Predict the structure of Uroporphyrinogen decarboxylase.
Amino acid sequence: MSMNADAKQQYQASLNRVLDAIKLKEPDRVPLIPVVEAFPYYYAGLTIQEGMYDYHKAGAALDKFYADFHPDLGWDPVLMYPGKIMELLDMKWFQWPGRGIEDPNSMYQYIEKEYMTEDEYDELLLDPTHFIQSKWIPRSFGALDGLKYLALRDSIWFGFFNTFPVFGRKEVQDSLQTLLKFAEEMNKWYTFLGEYDKKMENEFGVPLAYGAWGYAPFDWLGDTMRGTVPILRDIRERPDKLLAAIERFTPIAVEASINGAKASGRPFVWVWLHKGVDQLMSKEQFGKFYWPSLRQYIQELVDAGLTPFIYVEGSYHKRLEFLREVPKGKVVYDFEDIDMFEAKKVLGDVACIAGNVPNALLSYGTPAEVEEYCKKLIDVCAPGGGFMMDTAAMVDDAKPENMQAMFKVTREYGVYRR
């Protein structure tokens, strides 16, 4: 698919705009980078269930969004997860329309549990790969329960006499057959995403926002293994084991993000922060358990030539001084709940900031109220560069006229006077 001249010009202008903001320069205007989740599907009259089970309908919904809005960074249908694939695996930590949620137009939900118990830290530390394969995966995907019988690390020398026969078990074979079916369907989805990414670039002139995803090492453990309450309890009851696990997972998190960015060929890594919020741990605990590994993770991504977009979900009013400890002009902090004026004051000479147009305002406010809020953000955060317009969180049920107001005021009022 060749790029038309208008799309090429718009693509390069948007990309330059974003890159200038990251480098703390003043671009031609404030970049628009809203992270849209369900909004394009609601906007196009498509249900969430349709979007999750019909890739091409999801793509058509995004077509309408990009034709009408033209952001400076955009998202392909990756955030509308493929229902067929998750259903095939019998995914335990997600429910969605068609699987656990009756309303076809309700958003999917994460189901948090202890997928690793408090007495399994030593096993995780001994061999994270084996633990994930033999414990976490079978607990997380019902159709892959047979993988719990594999112990391939014991295959050295003639150990294979004992480990290879397990492939004769029906449970193992069933799990492997499921993985083959999964790979076929996943490749269809990847092919679709690749084609849509080219369409975004060549028809709409919109650069893709992400090259890879990432998570703070603490969140790798807290989100997917221990759960929120258990890992917060671990801070007090088993701090040494928790710190050891965080240290063990930090290079794994770095490797995953770098490999993902290399595979995509795009330098933007979106890092979704969850459990470091003000309400869940003290400033001292944040400085001991959360920030050091996250700072290392950010530094190693920058050293690899990548740009971390730190999507700061929740309240971070007490964390700003920590967030200064990153390479200058190399990092974006996209805030949900923060005093943006204070964020500009503390971080403005170090990192680009984005956000935080309230989602509630977009859902229940008026275009005039949205315009007023965005103008205040631009007045305080835009001077000198290093600011991008985004919503407070991923956008679902916003009023179209309010989204249009945010785009319009940013394009007209957010122009830098030279």
